[in-house]
Amino acid sequence: MKKVALIYWPQGGSVERCANIINDKLQDCNVEFHCLEDVKAGDLAKFDSIVLGGSTVGADHWSNDQNQDEWTFLFSEMEKEQVDLKDKTIALFGLGNQMLYPNHFVDGMITIKKAFEKFGVKTVGPWPTDGYDFNESQAIEDDKFVGLALDEDSQPELTEERIDEWLHMIKKDIA
Ligand SMILES: Cc1cc2nc3c(=O)[nH]c(=O)nc-3n(C[C@H](O)[C@H](O)[C@H](O)COP(=O)(O)O)c2cc1C
What we know:
The chain is an alpha/beta fold. The protein contains four helices and nine strands.
């Protein structure tokens, strides 16, 4: 059985709530559940696949917001240590608010994807943009979100079924 890490940030809000739901639904897999703060760059290579969840909190530039410091810190540690993640798989989920930030909906997912892809990972779990109402997102490639987009602010009732469908899609690739 593959070794899976489920890593999320920040704590205490929607991301953590969704991460908990995902963790519960991955209990038939060999999964380790971690808040980003507890993860060291050097630990990443011991997993076959990594599910990464974050939010977007910088209306104009994702990287502006201090809340993202924890991700930036991990990325710089990964650079410093030149972690070897070749042949590893990642899957992303991102929280956002399409009503208040329709021009930057779940932008943050692309930052995490790019940061990890530098180290040779393969990303699975693109997600259709149907059923959302927004103008633009940097997190779209080939007409799909690069990972699961969740909106606990304006579409909380859809979260669980979206998670179920997404996990059903990616389980064979990550677990
Ligand atoms: C200051 C601020 C800026 C935000 N900027 C964006 C944004 O650019 N794009 C987006 O989709 N959501 C944006 N959001 C919405 C959050 O991503 C969303 O509420 C998310 O669920 C927060 O997760 P958390 O509760 O775990 O912090 C922003 C929220 C705040 C408070």
